[in-house]
Amino acid sequence: MPETRRESFDRLRQMMKGDVRRLLDWSEGGNYVAALLIATGSEALSRLQDQRDERVFVGSLEKHGLAREMAADVFGALRHGLAHVYDTKFIRAGDLRIELIVGGIGSI
User: Fold this and answer.
1) What is the pLDDT of residues 71-82, one digit of tens each?
2) How far apart are CA 59 and CA 68, in angstroms?
């Protein structure tokens, strides 16, 4: 029987959480792969809701106090940077260039 969008969303979100936890259990590395998984997985979750690619990711960062515009820039820098060059892209804030550093990720 076909899943509803909600069931698909919940199943994908649970799979992502489990995969990220396993990646972060590695004794070395895993942070970039986990960050890429979060960015691309969030994109898939957004598409399941017929939303812009960054919506789920941005919504998550907004809950932690980051402004929507900056959260969208973080999404782009992680998603497109990690997926295409396996490094983050810089974010521009006026005259500043901000470099994102991928380190240990807290609880999901």
Assistant:
1) 999 999 999 999
2) 8
